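ARCHIVE CARD
Drawer: 12
Card no.: 0347
Subject: one protein chain, sequence and derived structure
Cross-reference: see card 0346
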Amino acid sequence: MIEKSEFGMTNGYKIFLFTLKNSKGMTVKLTNYSGAIVSIFVPDKDGNVDDVVLGYDDLEGYVNGTSTQGALVGRYANRIAKAKFTLNGREIQLRANEGTNCLHGGIVGFHKRVWTIDETTDNSVTFGYFSPDGEENFPGNLKVTCKYTLTEENELKLEYKGKSDEDTILNMTNHSYFNIGGVHSGSVLSQVVQINADSYTPVDSELIPTGEIAPVEGTEFDFRKPKPIYQDLHNSDLIGYDHNFMLGEPHVMREAAIVYDPVTGREMKVFTDKPAIQFYTAIGLQGEIGKDATMMKIQTALCLESQYAPDSPNQPNFPSCILKAGEEYNFTTIYQFGVRK
């Protein structure tokens, strides 16, 4: 079932909150401001239901927030070095918003836009956005959609589509901050993570890939077998993770990652046909007021952002993120929730 209610106003636009429920005790709340996931309520091993997505109490939080909570991100999720790339022999200079680099689409990315409500059904809502040619200096008039569907298998399915009238680049993701122990359960470092990737992309001091695709074996980035997040951090210079893992070829659906919380028994599986996934343990999350007027703190959530690899437009050995004029961008990511007794 689906419910629609008013969430507030911003810049003259009325914003709505959509609530999806299934018969298995799962509830998802979505808003057309930034196309964000506001809440995901799921039961634990004892049947206790809790919200497992960080965020804000009201629309104002999403409008003014700086950490992209729950949002749909584009045109290009993650970083583009020096905020520029070459397409069809033409150098395109984007708007830099993280030093000299472009992060998550520029100064006003998709996550700071009001999305249209294109369709609703009993268990889904589709948000849309039209990005005009030259927005944040990206080429092409681009129409994108994301359809959120809540299934009876406790899956939240995200179906991304897009089409441009000229060649462009496109890399959309969802930027939810998950804590499957519950939004107020504290650090996620004891949660157990598995990432089904044999390689990752090393980065420089600005988190820009060096161009190398390196094996995870023998490194702190080896999550091929489940392990607590903290396990290998003490043997490294890392305070947490903000790294891209290579999954394989685009358009091949696969189980990319699993997160398990030993305290509540909750488990989240991530399936995607994107070629890569960013694992981020919220090492920059601090200073914002989140749900229930509680201060957000470092490493109290994790993100698993299905994507093309960072800086792919400048890395010829990475899978290409170019969207040709008239062709359809079409990817799916699924977050599936369950429990272990």
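Annotation on reverse: The longest strand covers residues 328-339. The radius of gyration is 19 Å.
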